[in-house]
Design a protein that fits this description.
CATH architecture: 2-Layer Sandwich
Number of domains: 1
Helix content: 25-40%
Number of helices: 5
Number of strands: 7
CATH class: Alpha Beta
Largest sheet: 5 strands, mixed
Distance between the termini: 23 Å
Bound molecules: magnesium ion
């Protein structure tokens, strides 16, 4: 039985799950997925507050059993103050590749009553495609409204992704 399990090709696959949420902060640029969104508020946080990149980085790290970005880049460390969250994503991707894994696809949800995500979906997909070196067809970004729940206080991002071991 053990031999059958370990010879199964599915053992080369790893799934990752990411979640992050930040409150809005007036006067700060809003960044999601590495792009600027035209909105009067940004996301409060120690870094640039890019909740989507935080969720994706955590999903990558979680899939290969690495510590999450809160452990790797603690908000008590002044080195990460106002830092571009691309740095977190690149470090997560480096750790994934170091363990011999390659990203197959990424599926994201942005939970927000405002701003409207639809006009930015293609730009966010393109940005993620470039950052992750993954074809844009392998990336999905969906905007969902919360229909009044926690309305206007901030936004949340969820994502799931799949890795395959190249060995
Ligand atoms: Mg965060």
């Amino acid at each position: 039985m053990r031999a059958i399990i370990y010879s199964c090709p599915l053992m080369k696959l790893r799934v990752g799950l990411g979640f992050d949420s930040h409150p809005f902060e007036k006067g700060k640029p809003l960044k999601l997925g590495g792009i600027l969104i035209d909105f009067p508020m940004g996301l409060k946080g120690h870094s640039d507050g890019d909740a989507l990149l935080h969720a994706v980085a955590d999903a990558l790290l979680g899939a290969v059993g690495e510590p999450d970005i809160g452990e790797l880049f603690p908000d008590t460390d002044p080195r990460w103050k106002d830092v571009d969250s691309v740095l977190f994503l690149k470090e997560a991707l480096r750790r994934v590749r170091e363990k011999g894994y390659r990203l197959l696809n990424l599926d994201c949800v942005i939970l927000a009553d405002q701003p409207k995500i639809a006009p930015y979906k293609d730009s966010i997909r393109k940005s993620l495609s470039e950052l992750l070196e993954l074809p844009v067809e392998c990336i999905s970004v969906k905007g969902k409204r919360r229909e009044g729940f926690c309305q206007e206080e901030g936004l949340a991002c969820l994502c799931t992704l799949l890795l395959v071991h190249e060995g």
